[in-house]
């Protein structure tokens, strides 16, 4: 179980986190969604203690995760956006190491690796060096390194990026199984149908803060449907006045924005405008993202040119990161890790 309250992280004028609040229960999968640069990875980095926030509180299963003992990190299994494994060591040796770091005894590790390899389709590559397996296999190894030891909090930052459908299905099955076993899961993705498959609750992030939170059905119920209507040859020149501001005519079809399609259809019939064709497009997660999470077109370009405070403008686009729930164990180093160190030093 995780509770973040009022987290703030500034990089110069950019507020990567700007009053970030989130509560995730044990057994819950929460999908973090938001535009590039919204602050998702920064939040994951704060939880894994790779980044120190400027303000705010974070508790993980009741432990102060910002100021408490580093051993609290054993509660967290994290899969970074970029591969952070020992490239010359085998898949098995990497998993042995991550297992040991979580405190798993040697005898238990062997069985845990066997199970994870079967679950994540890694059996055939267990004894190959990470550098010599495919990108998809590396990503599954990274996910396995987060899951080994069954940590009660899993942070998965775009774990299915670049995965083929079979790999994606295996990863999602594994994530669901961890949540069913009681883990709290925080899952970031830009591929929204995954969150439907996972029956995840959603946290929509915009400019460093959570702007919408809840079950998919309740968030979607706040969005309108689009009703496509066609009428016979003698169709109406206008729809009834109460729909005028919500309807657009496109050739022989009307598109009506509606919070209550049955009520609008009934009103049309009462007004003597019976449609000959009706099709209702219900809102989906893409619509939710466009409505709540996305920045206006062009905003990201502006952000790259000039970072402005989050309250008045967009944040800059991100650099991708290497991060790990177990700092100092990875040989993988990226621009973001170096930038972070430079920042800390400065
Ligand atoms: N080390 C850093 N130094 C300076 N700015 C940073 C650093 N890390 C992140 N930022 C900035 O903080 C903001 C949030 O970035 P973050 O990577 O958390 O976004 P994100 O939501 O994970 O994006 P994406 O979906 O592209 O992965 C961005 O404006 C980014 O440029």
From TrEMBL:
<protein>
    <submittedName>
        <fullName>ABC transporter ATP-binding protein</fullName>
    </submittedName>
</protein>
<dbReference type="InterPro" id="IPR003439">
    <property type="entry name" value="ABC_transporter-like_ATP-bd"/>
</dbReference>
<keyword id="KW-0067">ATP-binding</keyword>
<dbReference type="InterPro" id="IPR003593">
    <property type="entry name" value="AAA+_ATPase"/>
</dbReference>
<dbReference type="InterPro" id="IPR050763">
    <property type="entry name" value="ABC_transporter_ATP-binding"/>
</dbReference>
<keyword id="KW-0046">Antibiotic resistance</keyword>
<dbReference type="GO" id="GO:0005524">
    <property type="term" value="F:ATP binding"/>
</dbReference>
<comment type="similarity">
    <text>Belongs to the ABC transporter superfamily.</text>
</comment>
<feature type="domain" description="ABC transporter">
    <location>
        <begin position="2"/>
        <end position="232"/>
    </location>
</feature>
<keyword id="KW-0547">Nucleotide-binding</keyword>
<feature type="compositionally biased region" description="Basic and acidic residues">
    <location>
        <begin position="335"/>
        <end position="346"/>
    </location>
</feature>
<feature type="region of interest" description="Disordered">
    <location>
        <begin position="297"/>
        <end position="346"/>
    </location>
</feature>
<dbReference type="InterPro" id="IPR027417">
    <property type="entry name" value="P-loop_NTPase"/>
</dbReference>
<dbReference type="Pfam" id="PF00005">
    <property type="entry name" value="ABC_tran"/>
</dbReference>
<keyword id="KW-0813">Transport</keyword>
């Amino acid at each position: 179980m995780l509770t973040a309250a009022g987290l703030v992280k500034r990089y110069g004028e950019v507020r990567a986190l700007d009053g970030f609040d989130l509560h995730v229960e044990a057994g819950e999968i929460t999908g973090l969604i938001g535009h590039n640069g919204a602050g998702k990875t920064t939040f994951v980095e704060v939880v894994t203690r790779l980044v120190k926030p400027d303000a705010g509180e974070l508790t993980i299963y009741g432990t102060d995760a910002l100021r408490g003992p580093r051993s609290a990190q054993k509660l967290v299994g994290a899969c970074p956006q970029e591969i952070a494994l020992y490239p010359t060591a085998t898949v098995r040796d990497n998993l042995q190491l991550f297992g040991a770091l979580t405190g798993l005894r040697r005898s238990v590790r062997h069985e845990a690796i066997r199970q994870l390899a079967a679950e994540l389709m890694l059996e055939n590559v267990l004894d190959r060096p990470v550098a010599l397996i495919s990108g998809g296999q590396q990503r599954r190894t990274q996910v396995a390194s987060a899951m080994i030891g069954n940590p009660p909090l899993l942070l998965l930052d775009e774990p299915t990026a670049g995965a083929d459908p079979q790999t994606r299905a295996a990863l999602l099955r594994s994530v669901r199984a961890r949540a069913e076993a009681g883990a709290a899961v925080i899952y970031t993705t830009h591929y929204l149908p995954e969150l439907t498959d996972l029956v995840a609750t959603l946290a929509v992030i915009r400019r460093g803060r959570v702007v919408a939170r809840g079950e998919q059905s309740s968030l979607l119920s706040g969005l309108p449907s689009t009703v496509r209507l066609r009428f016979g040859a003698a169709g109406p020149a206008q729809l009834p006045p109460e729909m005028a501001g919500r309807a657009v005519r496109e050739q022989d079809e009307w598109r009506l924005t509606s919070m209550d399609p049955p009520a609008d259809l009934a009103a049309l019939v009462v007004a003597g405008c019976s449609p000959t064709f009706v099709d209702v497009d219900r809102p989906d997660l893409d619509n939710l993202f466009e409505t709540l999470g996305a920045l206006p077109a062009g905003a990201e370009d502006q952000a790259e040119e000039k970072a402005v405070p989050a309250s008045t403008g967009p944040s800059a686009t991100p650099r991708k990161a290497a991060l790990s729930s177990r700092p100092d164990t990875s040989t993988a180093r990226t621009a973001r890790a170096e930038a972070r160190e430079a920042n800390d030093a400065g």
